[in-house]
Amino acid sequence: MLHLEPMTRLKFRLPALHWQILIAMLLAIAVGLWAPREIGPVKIVAVLDFLGTLFLRALQMLVVPLILTSVISSLAKAAGGSHAGRLGWKTALYYCSTGLLAILTALIVTNIVKPGAVAPEVSEALIAAAKIDASSTAAQLSSHGAPEMAGIFLRMVPENVFAAFTRNADMLSILFFAILVGLFSARLPENRRQPFAEWWGTFFDVMMEITHWVLRFAPIGIFGLIGETVLTTGVAFLGPVAKFAFCVLIALFIHMALTLSVVLRLFGSSPRAHFKAMSPALLTAFSSASSAATLPVTMDCLKNRGVSERVRGFFLPVGANINTDGTALYECAAALFIAQIYGIEITPAVQFTVVLLALLTSVGVAGVPAASLVAIVIILNAINLPLEAIGLILATDRILDMARTSVNVYGDSVGAVAIAKSEGETLVER
After folding, report:
1. Chain centroid to CA 66: how far?
2. Cβ distance 364 to 172 under 8 Å?
3. 63 or 31, which is more confident?
């Protein structure tokens, strides 16, 4: 009689999260390019939009409590104001330095490539098209101008902090309030500060547990986001607009692969190990085009790298709102491209104006898709270009928004590593 051994149970392990996301993106592109728009009564684009929107809503649900709990708990856990002050000046120095380097990269690449230097007849056709394509956008943004710079600082101080919690556009004011609470809680007597810090730290831990659960569905959500974008708009770049898109992508790549890698090397960290660790956050940022929505994923990736909660909790929420290297780079390139199309002489004075405004306006740009269009309006007004010129860049804005958001998130993560290293922390380098 034969004796049959029990069948060994096969263990199936899912690939790592970043591989799941990458596979989902490739499948989404295939579906977007070749799938029919409708199968019977089912509209494919509606299904994809539902999946992507549901995932984004789940991430956005976490953003406000994550910012609030992480900033307050990290500052409250500091023994005194000196730690927060030290982190603050290091953070400001990093933002200004990398932001300026990103803008100068865009300035150099755009002046070399000259994407807007075209024949007069081509320029006239593009301008005519822009006036048609951008009419609604110009109407919506016509109220924004140079006074918006003052508005950026006014929005930092909320009239009603509880109302600010309900509006995603008020992230800067929520961040300002959280920093104030954290800083002043650190001044409480130890017997009162410690329970306060522990409560907010526990709240933060709960939010991170929810974040881990939401991230399990990231491949499905990203499949919907990418699939809907490709199915609706396609990916066609033609003529000068394609040249402009290529110019921006090259500048973003240089900043990410060269400038930020040098920063990592200066602080004794491996660019290769860091890029590998940040892959899930980068893919999420690329697909969602939102630094704020990617914040939970970025925090999780840096936790795996060994960056302390104190540094993560302070630096990342701040960075998601004001450290926007990719956006500043894009604003500079877009303004110069439009000036070239309109045949405006780009004098050193004009270039200095563009660089300065790109650096300042990028600070107030919220980490949500397409928010940089408002900042570009300020720059266009400053160099006397019509608002409808924004239509020249709308065709490629979604793809470039995805790319520059990835650079924004990567810049945040590099800054967190640099600050952690400067604080004497030992990170995972593999």
Report:
1. 16
2. yes
3. 31
Identify the H or E element spanning 43: strand 42-43
The whole-model pTM stands at 0.67
**Chain centroid, CA 346 distance in Å:** 29
Q: How many Å separate Cα 303 from the centre of its chain? A: 19
Which residue reads 């539902």 in tokens? 50
- Percent of the chain whose pLDDT exceeds 70: 72
Residue 254, Cβ neighbours under 10 Å: how many?
A: 18
What tokens appear for 223 in the block? 């499949």
DSSP annotation string for 73-123: HHHHTSSSHHHHHHHHHHHHHHHHHHHHHHHHHHHHHHHHH-TT---HHHH
Displacement of CA 141 from its chain's centroid (Å): 22
pLDDT in tens, 122-176: 566 556 545 544 444 444 444 444 444 556 567 678 788 888 777 655 666 777 8
CB 31 within 8 A of CB 48: yes
Kind and range of the H or E run holding 39: strand 38-39
Count how many Cα atoms sit within 13 Å of the Cα of residue 240 in the half-sphere of its side chain: 26
CATH fold for the domain made of 87-155+235-422:
Proton glutamate symport protein (1.10.3860)
d(CA 43, CA 23) in angstroms, rounded, equals 23
| Whether the Cβ atoms of residue 285 and residue 405 lie closer than 8 Å to each other | yes
pLDDT for 141 equals 42
- 113 contacts: CB under 8 Å, gap ≥ 6: 243, 246, 247, 250
- From 147, 145, 143, 170, select the one nearest 159 (Cα to Cα): 170
Buried b (16+ CB within 10 A) or exposed e, 402-423: bbbbbbbbbbbbbbbbbbbbee
